[in-house]
């Protein structure tokens, strides 16, 4: 494989499916890659973004102009590998500097074979995506690039995100256990649809022993661990394809076991209750999204990474086969449903990332709510 450096002179071009192109230089691995072009507004936390399995098949555009300043450390990854299919930055750090840094981001991308592009006007690209919506994209780098017509044809042949069923591609194949930190108080079965490492850790910190089960786990597998609560994780792809986890969740709701879902898990709860999901024009990604908890009225700044959302009524509780449900959280930027709460069963979910990796810790109380539900069930 050819190598690039942040000062690389190897040309690269980004081609959007609507024909708009941006020229820059190779960053990370040199070659070609495809995915859905999305932008993240996080100023920090690029390692957590890159290793979040929910970004599988997405090409992430960073709106922060400087990326890579603190290099790559061994502590911050959220999974064993980088999942983004491509990476777009304006101005990569030439020399990373941080006491934890082990290598440069450019080296890490190259080592993991992730094709990126630098020197792109990421403000113009983000505005384009905001106006036209998330769309397919290709990044091509090398000294001999194909002509634009050929590149565009390849981008238009790449799979779309709508209709993509991706959880099984990123989730664990085998069950593993994250032990409780300190005295064990509860056992939780966590369905891995693309879970981030910090999520079981946040539960373990609260005395929960977490059994992380593959995406294909059945209700029988879930109840085999004798859980006090069941958790449904975040994950990539279109929630409309998640029929299997929806069926498992309905069994959990039927049994009345305390249930908590985040992100993809929120969309699955929406579907289990009979609501639809839809694709947002360009989604929410970053660590600075304002959400209101409608039960307390408090506003929290939260970490998001979602391109789909639940279509549930904002006004008042709705009747569902599992009793009344209310929209518990809304995004203050655009009124998108950010959380669901059942009023007659111990189940709730949020569309964002309370595990805060990276991101503010405002939403940490949600893990405590899950603990309270499990305590309530025992009382
Ligand atoms: N982070 C997630 O769980 C994302 C859920 C889903 N893939 C979406 O894009 O909306």
Annotation keywords:
23% helix, 379 residues, GATASE, Glucose Oxidase, domain 1, 2 domains, Rossmann fold, 32% strand, 7-stranded mixed beta barrel, 20 strands, 10 helices, alpha/beta, single chain, binds glutamine, pyrimidine biosynthesis, 11-stranded mixed β-sheet, nucleotide-binding
Explain this structure:
It is built from 10 helices and 20 strands. With 379 residues, it is of the alpha/beta class. It folds into 2 domains: 11-157, Glucose Oxidase, domain 1 (3-Layer(bba) Sandwich); 167-378, Rossmann fold (3-Layer(aba) Sandwich). Strands 10, 11, 12, 13, 14, 15, 16, 17, 18, 19 and 20 form an 11-stranded mixed sheet that branches. It binds glutamine (GLN). The site of glutamine (GLN) has 11 residues, from strand 16. Composed of two chains; the small (or glutamine) chain promotes the hydrolysis of glutamine to ammonia, which is used by the large (or ammonia) chain to synthesize carbamoyl phosphate. Tetramer of heterodimers (alpha,beta)4.
């Amino acid at each position: 494989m050819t190598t690039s450096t942040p000062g690389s002179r190897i040309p690269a071009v980004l081609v959007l499916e609507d024909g708009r192109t941006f020229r820059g230089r190779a960053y990370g691995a040199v070659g070609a890659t495809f995915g859905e072009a999305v932008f993240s507004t996080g100023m920090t936390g690029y390692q957590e973004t890159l290793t979040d399995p929910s970004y599988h098949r997405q090409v992430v555009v960073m709106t922060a102009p400087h990326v890579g300043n603190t290099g790559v450390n061994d502590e911050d990854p959220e999974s064993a590998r980088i999942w983004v299919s491509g990476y777009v930055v304006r101005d990569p750090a030439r020399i990373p500097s941080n006491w934890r840094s082990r290598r440069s981001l450019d080296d890490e991308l190259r080592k993991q074979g992730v094709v990126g592009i630098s020197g792109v006007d990421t403000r113009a690209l983000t505005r384009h995506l905001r106006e036209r919506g998330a769309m397919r994209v290709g990044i091509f780098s090398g000294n001999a690039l194909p002509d634009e017509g050929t590149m565009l044809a390849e981008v238009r042949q790449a799979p779309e995100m709508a209709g993509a069923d991706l959880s099984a591609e990123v989730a664990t194949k085998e069950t593993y256990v994250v032990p409780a930190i300190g005295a064990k108080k509860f056992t939780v079965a966590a369905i891995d649809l693309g879970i981030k490492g910090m999520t079981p850790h946040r539960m373990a910190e609260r005395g929960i022993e977490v059994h992380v089960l593959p995406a294909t786990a059945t209700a029988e597998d879930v109840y085999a661990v004798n859980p006090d609560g069941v958790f449904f994780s975040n994950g990539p792809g279109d929630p409309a394809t998640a029929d299997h986890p929806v069926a498992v969740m309905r069994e959990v709701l039927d049994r009345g076991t305390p249930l908590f879902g985040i992100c993809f898990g929120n969309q699955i709860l929406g579907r289990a209750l009979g609501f639809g999901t839809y694709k947002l024009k360009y989604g929410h990604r970053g660590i600075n999204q304002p959400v209101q908890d409608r039960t307390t009225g408090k506003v929290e700044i939260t970490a998001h990474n979602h391109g789909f959302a639940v279509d549930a009524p904002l006004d008042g509780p709705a009747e569902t086969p599992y009793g009344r449900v209310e929209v518990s959280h809304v995004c203050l930027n655009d009124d998108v449903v950010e959380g669901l709460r059942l009023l007659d069963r111990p189940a709730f979910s949020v569309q964002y990332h309370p595990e805060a990796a990276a991101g503010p810790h405002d939403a940490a109380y949600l893990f405590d709510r899950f603990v309270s539900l499990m305590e309530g069930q025992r009382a």
